[in-house]
């Protein structure tokens, strides 16, 4: 038994932890959980915890249903919202086959495989997400408008004394810090009831774990404030969608591989190849970064959402943005991928972006011309001349691009790739038959 496992067992005993929740996700990013008695944790470390994989989205067929949860002791944390009396803890788990091998269906495992490839290439990745979401009065829709009701009518960076979202964000940040997740910023976003909380950088696997914990804390805190939090990409037609812009940087040892003094924008050739790879494969991996029908309402809904494949220096209409360089902070040189929305499965989405960038480095892909203009203000002809191809306009188009993608099949493996395609085809088929309120209001009285 290693030191981390011993630390977990000792903490469970010292803190009188009564339940230990084993956390993992299915391929769509839905959090799954099973509560383990403290006395069973040591056995779970040694042998894993068996479960029926055929009942989880994308894990296994009925004839191959037995799978194992292998708890990761480095992710052990007491859950503060469960109270201090008879506390509950959690650990994230890796998914194993009955013979103890990593399951090819595990989203966390997909990301770990990409990180192993980065290590082989001699680089370490760090990520920092900016997570947006809406705080609503409830999950019910207003009968008059057919839309949810936000908790306020404030806007970007607004500070309202006594405002419900200020107390809410404070509670969320304090709770995040209790479970070891550091926060850089928190503020009101542009939409009514919309908030943003930015997490401090960490490696992609830890960041993905942090995002899953973040979503749970936000929803638990919302309930305590008699509200409802949603990470739906575009819950309002006339207000901004919720993105999850994420900053990426690569290090070779202690050296930031994205920085080169004297180069344009202080951007190294490694960074240029990485960006080129991300741009090359962005449309094909949209089914990971923008996985729901509603995701494309955000992507094409304006409000600085990146609808076209481009990169820019401090250009917030671009898909990939290179933030302003700070002369005294060489180590902070990074890129920002703005295509992600808040409902993405972080394990698969980060695996996609990182794998695309690494392939760009491996193949030495050339970076296209930087775009300094607002892409939304350009005409279709101007964008075409500049070489800015559009991102998929719908889930249906994203499915088609993914189906034809060798990159996606190689990244995900047969099992995850096959299940995602089946899941998304079913979602599109279900959506395309729905008669919307817009169609009824526009056509019913005329046709």
TrEMBL record:
GO terms for biological process: glutamine biosynthetic process. It holds the Pfam family Gln-synt_N. InterPro entries: Gln_synt_N, Gln_synt_N_sf, Gln_synth/guanido_kin_cat_dom, Gln_synth_cat_dom, Gln_synth_gly_rich_site, Gln_synth_N_conserv_site. Residues 107-447 form the GS catalytic domain. Gene3D superfamilies: Glutamine synthetase, N-terminal domain, Glutamine synthetase/guanido kinase, catalytic domain. Keywords: ATP-binding, Ligase, Magnesium, Metal-binding, Nucleotide-binding. The keyword Ligase applies. It catalyses: L-glutamate + NH4(+) + ATP = L-glutamine + ADP + phosphate + H(+). One of its GO terms (molecular function) is ATP binding. It comes from the Bacteria. Belongs to the glutamine synthetase family. This is Glutamine synthetase. Its EC number is 6.3.1.2. Its cofactor is Mg(2+). Residues 15-100 form the GS beta-grasp domain.
């Amino acid at each position: 038994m290693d030191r981390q496992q011993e630390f977990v067992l000792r903490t469970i005993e010292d803190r009188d932890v009564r339940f230990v929740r084993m956390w993992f996700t299915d391929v769509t990013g839905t959090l799954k959980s099973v509560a383990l008695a403290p006395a069973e944790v040591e056995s779970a470390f040694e042998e894993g915890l068996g479960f029926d994989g055929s009942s989880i989205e994308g894990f296994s067929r009925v004839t191959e249903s037995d799978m194992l949860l292998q708890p990761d002791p480095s992710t052990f944390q007491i859950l503060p919202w469960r109270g201090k009396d008879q506390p509950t803890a959690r650990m994230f788990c890796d998914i194993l086959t009955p013979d103890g091998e990593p399951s090819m269906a595990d989203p966390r495992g997909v990301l770990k495989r990409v990180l192993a490839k980065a290590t082989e290439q001699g680089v370490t990745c760090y990520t920092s997400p900016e997570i947006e979401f809406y705080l609503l009065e409830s999950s019910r829709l207003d009968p008059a408008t057919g839309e949810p009701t936000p908790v306020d009518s404030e806007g970007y960076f607004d500070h309202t004394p006594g405002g419900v979202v200020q107390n809410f964000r404070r509670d969320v940040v304090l709770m995040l810090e209790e479970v070891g997740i550091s926060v850089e910023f928190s503020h009101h976003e542009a939409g009514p009831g919309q908030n943003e909380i930015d997490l401090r950088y960490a490696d992609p696997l830890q960041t993905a774990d942090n995002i899953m914990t973040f979503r749970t804390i936000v929803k638990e805190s919302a309930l305590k404030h008699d509200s409802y939090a949603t990470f739906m990409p575009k819950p309002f037609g006339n207000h901004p969608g919720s993105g999850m812009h994420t900053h990426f940087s690569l290090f070779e040892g202690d050296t930031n591989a994205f920085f080169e003094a004297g180069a344009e924008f202080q951007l190294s050739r490694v960074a240029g190849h990485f960006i080129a790879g991300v741009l090359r494969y962005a449309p094909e991996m949209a089914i990971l970064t923008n996985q729901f029908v509603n995701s494309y309402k955000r992507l094409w809904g304006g409000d600085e959402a990146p609808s076209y494949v481009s990169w820019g220096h401090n250009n917030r209409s671009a898909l990939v943005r290179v933030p302003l360089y700070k002369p005294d902070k060489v180590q902070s040189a990074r890129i920002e991928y703005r295509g992600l929305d808040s409902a993405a499965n972080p394990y698969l989405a980060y695996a996609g972006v990182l794998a695309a960038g690494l392939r760009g480095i491996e193949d030495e892909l050339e970076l296209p011309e930087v775009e300094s203009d607002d892409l939304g203000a350009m005409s279709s002809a101007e964008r075409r001349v500049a070489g800015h191809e559009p991102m998929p306009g719908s889930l249906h188009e994203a499915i088609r691009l993914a189906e034809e993608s060798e990159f996606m099949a190689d990244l995900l493996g047969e099992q995850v790739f096959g299940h995602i395609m089946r899941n998304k085809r079913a979602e599109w088929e279900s959506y395309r038959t729905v008669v919307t309120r817009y169609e009824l209001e526009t056509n019913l009285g005329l046709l």
